[in-house]
Amino acid sequence: MATIKSVKARQIFDSRGNPTVEVDIHLSNGVLARAAVPSGASTGIYEALELRDGGSDYLGKGVSKAVSNVNSIIGPALIGKDPTDQTGIDNFMVQQLDGTQNEWGWCKQKLGANAILAVSLALCKAGAAVLNIPLYKHIANLAGNKKLVLPVPAFNEFMILPTGAASFKEAMKMGVEAVIKKKYGQDATNVGDEGGFAPNIQENKEGLELLKTAIEKAGYTGKNNNGSQKISGDKLKDLYKSFVAEYPIVSIEDPFDQDDWEHYAKMTTEIGTQVQIVGDDLLVTNPKRVEKAIREKTCNALLLKVNQIGSVTESIEAVRMSKHAGWGVMASHRSGETEDTFIADLSVGLATGQIKTGAPCRSERLAKYNQLLRIEEELGSEAVYAGASFRAPVKPY
Q: In which residues is Mg(2+) bound (predicted)?
């Protein structure tokens, strides 16, 4: 069996022009596995630590400390290890090499979640290569999932979910065709920070009306927040409920503050059977926060962002817990993305049923969609598209 020969990190740039970490793992059989980590703009305060340099270079956003931690601490400690031992190596990095904890578990404050995750992602790719299987199958095996599922793409910024498509390829066609250029002119296809279409609309209701019209004009029949004024938790909850009553909404993400467990729970109780209430900043892909939310019935879906928690193993644990609770799972990009397509394979391997990776434009977003098209083609007749079953495409594993 091939073993890890070297681990090399470098600083590269994400889609927002900010530094991020890329790692190469070389194996004894000549295999090279490479991965890069994304970074968020609107990060939750409970996310694992993304280590930045501070100071004046790159406006304080350099990652030379994280790179050095890989090259001088993590890398040397992994030489000779089995790259297929994802769980063992992830736990070794998180619990022994780093070892920092807070009330929500392992927080990666010593080495940085961006350093650990870059190695974890590259390791997963290396393990798949050694086993001579596609990355998505390796991820499925790590999780104990027996059924591969192509996810429904959720197109930003107000999210369109083509659940009625028969395949991922058809879902992409539906999303691309539901375009909004005619009403708002050329700037309708301006894109926001995450590669989502961002036309010049004044309030959320206008965006919902626009989407409804775009879907109808594209020949598809369809199912998502209000300006800057202050509003109480109960009134905000009632506003969301009015949106759900008026529009074909199937999913609402982060409807309240990341510490407002009370109103999350109220809304989930009142409309959770009709729509998916997705926890992003609330959960930060953290198994301990997921456990609390399951116990308190705070939401009913997980937004899966691997860099919020900082390792493949912990991400898989959060997904498995969510699925056993009957929750939906949506794999997600970050605003600062790279050309790395790991989350496409992750979504299929874990059968998340949903993926959010921007509008169908900008290459760092399209890279993920194109990888999903390749996976669907590779699976051939075995390919299963989540479609209307996007909230529960497989039995818990």
A: 253, 280
Instruction: Using alpha carbons, list the distances in angstroms from residue 357 to 73, 153, 160, 220, 343.
Output: 32, 8, 12, 21, 9
pLDDT at residue 89 is higher than 70: yes
The active-site residue out of 194, 314, 337, 376 is 194
Catalytic residue of the set 305, 323, 356, 368: 305
Cα 366 to chain centroid distance, Å, stands at 15
Residue 305 annotated in active site: yes
Residue 280 labeled ligand binder? yes
Strands 105-106 and 328-332 come out as unpaired
Is the pLDDT confidence value at 183 over 50? no
CA Rg value for the chain: 20
Mean pLDDT along residues 148-157: 86
Helix (H, G, I), strand (E, B) or coil at 216: helix
Output phi, psi for 156, to 5 deg.
Answer: -65, 165
Domain 152-197+233-389 has CATH 3.20.20.120: yes
pTM for this prediction: 0.88
Mean pLDDT of 124-146: 99
Over the range 263-298, which residues count as b (16 or more CB within 10 Å of their CB) and which as e? bbbbbbeebbeebbbbbbbbbbbbbbbbbebbeeeb
pLDDT 10s digits, 366-396: 999 999 999 999 999 999 999 999 999 999 9
The CA distance from 298 to 282, in Å, is 9
Fold exhibited by the domain 4-132: Enolase-like; domain 1 (3.30.390)
Q: What is the pLDDT of residues 32-50, one digit of tens each?
A: 999 999 988 767 789 999 9
In this predicted structure, the answer to whether residue 320 has a pLDDT above a threshold of 80 is: yes
193 is in an annotated binding site: no
Estimate to the nearest angstrom the gap between the alpha carbon of 131 and the chain centroid: 25
For the chain, give the percent of residues with pLDDT over 70.
Answer: 85
**Residue-range domain boundaries for the chain:** 4-132, 152-197+233-389
Distance CA 119, CA 33 (A): 10
Active site residue 291: no
Burial class (CB within 10 angstroms; exposed 0-12, middle 13-18, buried 19+) of 40:
buried
